[in-house]
């Protein structure tokens, strides 16, 4: 069985609306750990920004059963283009639908209700949702004094309660046909919900909540050096990277950038540039 780490690389758009004050620290960490990583068998790691490296139909030979999983992130709203995309036969039904965060632009109640209505129309046995940094109001311990610009005073407190048509995962696991999924929303962009300072105790606690026996990990931030480079800087988590290497993979690890926005483009609010990811994971039941 393949262990899949579903990663949403949300940091491609920092050039549009700000910079992470600790990005220099991340770049320095990456320089220091590259020699160490040479000691690991990275041949078991597959990193994908597109669907070409993700396996299509599985081998359905008896007695194996598979879950069909469709995953997206960074849709920012439910517009006509996204709905038409999800109406395509390849994406409109399956076993598990995953949204890895940023399904709204400002976390308004109208956006959340519209997204929940959209979820209710999807033909999946299970629907899993993780919050992103644009889900304003979802973080009960957010420091609101860091908010600025159009985010000030915006969002819906406990807006996740509107998501009645999906399972909302916040540092929580769910087991489907024996496969363990775990979702966590943290990132390093100040002024948004679920913000973490790098390398402090809260970051350690955040990633330490990930169970060692997870099969599909859904995050809103990549590990350092894995699909986190915007052409200039690295935005990922050094701590999450080492957490990933603690897992005991069955065959290899696949890292997926699930964002529907084209990575490192200025496409914010301009609809989808990419297609959903479809993959199959073997059931354990």
TrEMBL record:
One of its GO terms (molecular function) is hydrolase activity. Pfam families: Metallophos (PF00149). The keyword Signal applies. Residues 67-235 form the Calcineurin-like phosphoesterase domain. Keywords: Signal. Residues 1-18 form the signal peptide. Gene3D superfamilies: 3.60.21.10. SUPFAM superfamilies: Metallo-dependent phosphatases (SSF56300). Belongs to the UPF0046 family. This is Calcineurin-like phosphoesterase domain-containing protein. It comes from Caenorhabditis auriculariae. The lineage of its organism: Eukaryota, Metazoa, Ecdysozoa, Nematoda, Chromadorea.
